[in-house]
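Researcher: Can you fold this with iron/sulfur cluster in place?
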Amino acid sequence: MHETNEKTYSELAREAVGNEELHAAIRMIQDRIGRGTRQLWKTEISPELRARAKAMRMRTLEHLDVVLATLAENIRKQGGHVYFARTAEDASRYCLEVARKNEVKRVVKGKSMTSAEIGVDPLLEKDGIEVVETDLGEYILQLAGEAPSHIIAPCIHMNRRQIGRLFQEKLGIPYSEDPPTLTKAARKALREKLLTADMGLTGCNLACAETGQVALVSNEGNIRMATTMPKVHVALMGMERVTSTLAEHETLLRLLTRGAAVQKISTYVSFVGGPRQPGEPDGPEEFHLVIIDNGRTDILADPRFREVLACIRCGGCLNICPVYGRIGGHAYNATYTGPIGSVVMPLLGGVNDHADLCRGETLCGACKDMCPVNNDLPRMLSELRHMLAYGDETWDVTPVDKTEAVAFKAWAAAMSSRKAYDLLVKSGRLLQAPFVRKGVLKHGVGPLGKWTADRDFPPIAKQTFAERWNTIHAKRLKEDGDA
Amino acid sequence: MSKQTATLFIQCLVDSLRPEIGDAMVHILERLGVPMHYPPEQTCCGQPAFNSGYRAEATKAARRFIDIFEDSEIIVCPSGSCVHMVRHHYPELFKDEPGMLVRARRVAARTYEFTEYLVDVLGVTDPGEELGSRFNGTVTYHDSCHLARGLGIRRQPRQLLGNIPGLTLVEMDESDRCCGFGGTFSVKYPEISTAMVDDKVKTILETGADVVSGCDVSCLMNIAGRLSRIGSPVRALHIAELLAGTGV
Ligand code: SF4
């Protein structure tokens, strides 16, 4: 998977919070799109619709095998090929085989985080195949050699000056920071690639089993070209990305574009599902759908996490999350970022390996409110933390932090009697005494050390409330009562 | 007197760090003529352990809490997140233990957050008249996550603050954006937490308010900690302190 950075979450986060430009860019998305979507949830889209969408999703997930079989059958009927890939390697290898068989030299890509998940690009490139991203944002990142930082706005972390310099260097155009000029330059470069590519490789926003179609939404038209112009089209989809009926499909599509970009519908929606039929003016000669498991069956089998598969990857949760708002996508060092990434990456890529993602959120619940399919991400984060605390056999998790475990044992002991609790409070008072200045702690001890690097901490009070109750309140109330 | 006895659930942070908030709550209830009971054995509801994943430890605390509080008529707490813990997570912790589940649900149904209790149970509408509250200044209100999203309590505190004579309530931008406390989150990832509280502080300062108020001491402690570190004169006061007039 996309994890290339050796730095820890905390290190990456520290770099990111110091990056004012990044902060401003993400705030802009959160202010514009995040607020816009929230407004839609209040006005135009009823909570009932979202609840219904979730229910449809869950029903489909419960019969996923049947639904996927129907999808495959309908795609095959249209002359398309369907491949069920159990692992990431499986899926990538299949793509490579298709490319080799068709003597593909150039692949144009669009809309596929799944391709990053399975790591197909490097595999194709190793075989001497050129791989070109066609989504403008993704293309910019490819030129810069960077990973996406947002689900729907992958290069939000870059500003137009950086992009201008990048284009100057890589595309050999005069420096400009004028967005239309830059867009035109990219379009020109991409058109050439699109016209000469032999294979289109895309993701799949939603598939519809009933009609045997894959739907792809975009605002640039690049998807339309990547799926129709090259002679081969391979679509990658996570196995959960399927809907049973056209009705479910339509409802989810509506929620998807609204959650992603406050749009009623995106500029382009492509429905594809097979090769060009006789008499049709365009379309590929070969169509392949790769349905990827890569750990999803395990998620499906666990009732604690099944609902995360209801996610339609709209990115809405990123547009409200205050943690994401401060650290951006790269700090997650993962294919899927933000609140959804924090739940799904540990499950797909190993809970211990992504322990920081499970722990690095405040459980504030904003993502849950925002999610068009009501995914309870905070609940699942809490379940993941539970596994990290004690270990978990099914998910092969080992306890993550021995010191913390010991501390919570001690904490539980201290909380289990008022005497022990009072003792703790009293020793705290003694310990803090040398550090209290003007009524606050400027330098905390132990775990508070880091906390007080940027914040003052209130010292433990001279008397606890319990003491005050005994010495002041209880007496007064009794006297008042007697009087 | 027909009022139910209010059993005080004073969360550990109020108990040890800001007991004045507990005092304020007692004074308010006293003025309303509510009989009070304080179980001296209480310690912590278990929330810190639960949120960090240590459910066995949290369950221990929960069991103890239920033992101590289950005979109460009504339980009142000056902290939204603790009420959220009792109301939503206790039943979850005991879902496989039928006997305990019944007890957990009973306690959950009787536990109220302080402003919710004042407005929805006691029907307080005019703090000036009913509680003798007064405050000269401008106040902005921070919606704590568990209180606002978890319990849906947004209206009650505003209703109370808005009716304190002399007090001007000004809304901050995105009042329900998390302040970055998150319990052990702020200890484990202080760099992110500080950045988040800075966002919060910015929106507070933009209102020009003299005071930021809220119903959770943990958020207030986080916000106050940052305000004080950057040398801001804006104070963070619990709503009980404003209602009781002790924060003036
Ligand atoms: S979890 Fe919900 S909000 Fe986040 S990407 Fe998935 S569907 Fe969108």
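Model: Folded with iron/sulfur cluster in place. DSSP finds 22 helices and twelve strands in chain A.
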